[in-house]
Amino acid sequence: MRVMAETAARYAHARPRASRFLRHEALTGYAMISPALFLLAVLLAYPFVLAVYISLTDRVLGEPGSFVWIRNFVKLLQDPLFRQTVWNSFVYTVSTVFLKLSLGLILALLLNQEFPCRNLVRGALLLPWIVPTSLSVLTWLWMFDSLFSVVNYLLLALGLISRKIPWLGDPFWAMISVIIVNTWRGLPFFAASLLAGLMTIPRELYEAAQSDGAKPLACFWFVTLPLLRPVIAVVVLFSTIWTFADFQIVYILTHGGPVNATQIFATMAYDVALVAGRIGEGSAISLFLFPALLVVIIGLLHYLRRE
Amino acid sequence: MQKKPRTQHGTNRAISRRRFLGVTAGATAALSFGTFLRSGLGAARLNVLTWSNTLKAMDDVLREQAAAYTKEKGVEISLEFINQQDLPAKTAAIVESGAGPDIINLWANGAHLFAKALVDVDDVANDLGKRLKGWTNIGKDIGMVGKNWKAVPWGIIPIALTYREDWLKEVGYSTFPDTWEDLLAAAKKLKDKGHPVGFSLGRAIGDANQFHYPLLWSFGGKEVQKDGKTVAINSPETAKAVDYRRKLFQDGETDDVFAWDDAANNRAFLAGAVSITVNAASIYWAAKKDAPQLRGVTNHALFPKGPAGRFGYSSPILLGVFKFSKAQKEAKEFIKWLMEPKQYSAWIGEGEGMMAGLLNYYEDDPVWKKDPKLETIRQIPKYVRMPGYPGPPSRQAQEALVKFVIVNMFARAAKGMATAETIKQAEDELKALYAKA
Predict the structure, then answer these.
(1) How far is CA A193 from CA A129, A241, A278, B387, in A?
(2) What is the tens place of the pLDDT at every residue in B131-148?
(3) In chain B, whose CA is at the least distance from the CA of A271?
(4) Is the interface score ipTM higher than 0.90?
């Protein structure tokens, strides 16, 4: 009781000061967002503009270089290795986003049911997302090791395969490996976001649908999916951007190999810009998809606003 | 619970925070003034950025030497060791920002890549060369850009073939095969006995390149002409090397090589899964700790001879001084001091084959007498060439290396692609890359 009274007294005391602030509401507003704006300008806008500029020069490390317009981009298109990188990046992104979305949706639907220890399971789900990627991928590297692969050991012991799978040693399997690990890592983001979306769908809608005679599948198709669409659009958008820009998983697992089978934008850009020292061309590689992604982003955001 | 009156509580906190800030600010000011004073008093300080050696004991030697130097010359040395893999990105950032350590540890053709950011070290290199029997060819190749020394060659990590003596004896070889053809025959016999050989065809930036460049060269193949511009990979000699590599894979090698990174072959060798692989002396070293039973039966061999001779490619390291350094004179003196026999012998002595000097004087260093199995390693520097050979170790050659153009050419063949086709693909990649100014 006494505590409550004291709290009330404290608020009563504070009110005049607060109202004085409110009189300069606009000013306060600017003051409050200015740190964020400053950070955005310094940490995002400046490096981005600089990267765009560098991608239009033939700059190499330690030398100024000259402005070459879009020559880097034109040359990249003629480079067979880069064309393969573009293809790999699309295969990697499209398949992982598709897998993460479908598996994430299933997971979210399951976790939306009532069952014992539900919160514990929901929490545990986030683990792959929380563990630092480089560490968890190192563990995967061991699991796919050519000599000591525990995955192969298990599959052999269970009699599912007759000879060991060359996980990271074969172009096809290497792509499968990085897709598996990316899906594993990104799944929690999808599942958690979709679960949050599911929880906002009012129960009455399902009851209404059921009274109209809708079966579970129809409920999902005509109630759940349409209402989840904005959430799906956002997570797909984010995940697509992240996956196109992914570096750690591929760098640690395959370093783009074998024979460039898993070379993607970020790993190629790293090798060209930082290891070979051609930062102009390296920037062009990492910015190559920017125009395309920009169109996708604008389109999706437009769609979301209409929704 | 008895609560303190609110106002007093609030005042207390305000004062204590203010006092805290005041005290901290005062302390910081005092401290930085102290640093300012010290730096103003002329005590030079050198910052050195270098790789963290696979063999920690070698870094300990450097630390001790730096401390001794400080005592002797009054120049404070601060050594920073970072992961070798992080060194390129870090060096790039330093060169771009124009701020960082005074002395940098460069790798391979680093002196060529960063020539414009480095001061000439002709005085140091020429003086050392004069007194210590001259520089090896590879030392000159990596240290000199045009007519000037841009960095002092610090050494190479000698890459040899590491093999199991006992298994080779089992199939009838008392000495290591001296030519590639002999090696192929031996590998076949070894694989039949369940002891395949293994040379990475995967993403091992070190091992894979270190094996396949010498293979190409010893058959007479080359990626580029002596001018360092004209792509010359498409030749009958390259075709022979590619055919050989396919045969070696099919007849004598483990399938795992496509997945191998730089550490995988060490593990495979120590696990007894392969009989011959390519590596620094680190396997021999690791055996001491992890597999002592293997140390007695492990030995080193030079790369076999091909129609065009015997070659090798080992990672060289250099020490360079940045142009932005305010202590260039001191930096050069420290590098020279490190390269003097007293210090240098102690350092490579601790390495027992992990590092070889590029001054001819060090070919007779006492370290090579420590263990008869190091005799082979002593000879390695004279066979070593750099990617881009017979052209200079250029930026393009480096790009070809990091893109695994040569390794992948062999890897596709081992996977079954026709020789002409895989060479053509490598040629296209090289042409795209050498076309860049």
Answers:
(1) 12, 16, 39, 50
(2) 999 999 999 999 999 899
(3) B402
(4) no
